[in-house]
Amino acid sequence: MKTNEVRFGAAKDQLIIFDTTLRDGEQSPGASMTKEEKVRIAKQLERMRVDVIEAGFPAASNGDFESVKAVADVIKDSTVCGLARALEKDIARAGEALRGANSGRIHTFIATSPIHMEKKLRMTPDQVVEQAVKAVQWARQWTDNVEFSPEDAGRSDLDFLCRVLEAVIAAGARTVNIPDTVGYNMPWQFGGLIKNLREKIPNSDQAVFSVHCHNDLGLAVANSLSAVLNGARQVECTVNGLGERAGNASLEEIVMAVRTRQDMFSCDSRIDTTQIVPASRLVSGITGFAVQPNKAIVGANAFAHESGIHQDGVLKHRETYEIMRAEDVGWSTNKMVLGKHSGRNAFKTRLKELGIELDSEEAWNAAFARFKDLADKKHEIFDEDLHALVSDEATFA
Ligand code: KIV
Ligand code: ZN
């Protein structure tokens, strides 16, 4: 049934979390995923209460079409989105892939920066506006839930951006996403851009403003938060900040920054934050992209205390050195150090935290015996050792 509601059920003070791990994250060199792997990650994102899951780019390959279709067919509680260039054939491919979705969205894009229009698209600005409007109209033939992105908005002319966005909103785009495609913007500049766009575009209240920031200068999260302070109500992000080049804005950092600093934000996400660490482990296990130990929220040391002064402070009162609770993002309270004195329970718990499952009791017993042998030779058993110990028979939850 067609509905013209702008936010598709999301409350006004809700920050919509749009996860693109399976699309932009997968564009990270070496991170490509099979259909089954995408479905596993999508289910975890659904469990985490992500609002929109961008499952892939159906026109990119038959494999990606099948992956988006498989995700669309199984996910019930999150909207499933497919990316499409502003071409009728791409949009039709995305529409086909999303046919089985409970709630589907087509995300179409075309570049608007002078360098992209002239050197890549070889189109005039007028042609770009016309193509953008046609793309939204084609997408609207498949669904009311259409998102439009002016690629490289971060380097586009403000007046031209206003012109394109006003036209696509009039054509029926219900989300307009502003990408800083090459991670060029500064936080105060990007926040100002969102403010200007919302003020200058006459029909801006008919669409949700979204942002999509890349991390080339390490500013993707800061730019996204600045945009939220200036009225953006959807953030596009990835688990572990996976993505092209230096990656995308990290989901866990955005969600926890907004949740922890509610004194600063007039919105919050619906994310079940206790599912963050399991999601991080799953994505890292599937892609083989390790998470750096000092990575905020999901790094192994994010809630570890090493120096005596800090340990003393935390033992007296956790908030002396902790602004979030480890348990709230999915860590267990204590960071267990595994060694020769550890028991079967600690061993099994740690493997499960890493998203590793073994098929049978015999497999657990054999792995535990190998662990004990290794612990006799090493002071401490690290996660990499555990992965190596079970690499032949492990499955990832
Ligand atoms: O970075 C980018 O501009 C994109 C668009 C397709 C949204 O990924
Ligand atoms: Zn991107």
From TrEMBL:
It catalyses: 3-methyl-2-oxobutanoate + acetyl-CoA + H2O = (2S)-2-isopropylmalate + CoA + H(+). One of its GO terms (molecular function) is 2-isopropylmalate synthase activity. This is 2-isopropylmalate synthase. Mn(2+) binds at D24, H212, H214, N248. Keywords: Amino-acid biosynthesis, Branched-chain amino acid biosynthesis, Cytoplasm, Leucine biosynthesis, Manganese, Metal-binding, Transferase. GO terms for biological process: L-leucine biosynthetic process. GO terms for cellular component: cytosol. It comes from the Bacteria. Its cofactor is Mn(2+). Belongs to the alpha-IPM synthase/homocitrate synthase family. LeuA type 1 subfamily.
